[in-house]
From TrEMBL:
It comes from Chloroceryle aenea. GO terms for molecular function: arylesterase activity. Belongs to the strictosidine synthase family. The lineage of its organism: Eukaryota, Metazoa, Chordata, Craniata, Vertebrata. Its main location: membrane. The keyword Signal does not apply. This is Adipocyte plasma membrane-associated protein.
Amino acid sequence: SAYSSKVFRVTFLTLAASLTVPLLGVTVLLDCPIDPQPISLKEPPLLAGVLEPNIKLRKAERLWENQLVGPESIVNIGDVLFTGTADGKIIKIEDGEIQTIARIGHGPCGTREDEPTCGRPLGIRVGPNNTLFVADAYYGLYEVNPGTGETKMLVSTKTLIEGQKLSFVNDLTVTQDGRKIYFTDSSTKWQRRDYLYLIMEGRDDGRQVSLPKAFNLLLLEYDTVTKEVKVLMVGLRFPNGVQLSPTEDFVLVQETTMARIRRYYVSGLMKGGADMFVENMPGLPDNIRLSSSGGYWVAMSALRPNPGFSLLDFLSEKPWIKRMIFKLLSQETVTKFVPKYSLVVELSETGSYKRSFHDPNGVTVAYVSEAHEHDGYLYLGSFRSPFICRLNLQHV
């Protein structure tokens, strides 16, 4: 018996070594597409009180299922809805009918390789003259006439700004008079199709300009009258959704990788200054929009469960594991390991949590990218789902 046990141990260790050593050798020789740096995250907030898990998002209804492709952002003019989709289209939905009114890029569309030419409309807003302002990840900022479909380029990604081109135009917010557009460029290195690399790399690859490095973000301003683009904040760890305050004295910027929201003052005594609005959020914030209560709706692209296991937090200070993963696995494969969990939170005007809507396992609502409030309903956009969800706020 002792002899058999020894033989088994030797055989097992020999087999393990024969498999592990070649694997490690191959892993060392393989190139890694990312160069991650350690990120220090606090322990996620406890999912208790107003953040306690529920199934309120499961009360939402799916609209136009399988008729849309990843409607990321949503706006309305009256009762007419507009959105941009993953196949490069800008869509109008009126009386239940879907119509393509414009597209900035051109076909073919449908694959990862097609995205840079197909285009990907992300953030979308309504201007004072009922035109649409659109942030296309690959082409830049555009103004679209929803009646005629005419598109007008405002800022091209080919234009050099502080010596660099825009790489991943993401979201925008517009002043009431339409004079200023504040927008994010999420990376100087990665395009939208490589957003997972951007999250996992976690690097501060901001523009090298003479602004304080402590801002740790990238926020730009476009003046529709002078046509000038200014860099307001530099450095980034995935700056994402942006939203002007109701009084337009500051802009809120979601910093997805760091699970927080920064505030940049655009008017008043603190103009040009910045501070923290919300830090250590229970998920990775995507887009942010105004709520009718004077606060803000924040859509979470992924959850940081507590109690529970957060993959992002686990990997945050282990860049060597990230390198190992992306040497062996594609972005598409890694994405499959991210649990489905939909979460939308409402913040007060001061940044405190007012309420939260959950859909554990993403049964009804999956991969929420934006929550847009209109006429008592919350319209939920998704960069991956083939539908828009609508939640009656009086029933939750």
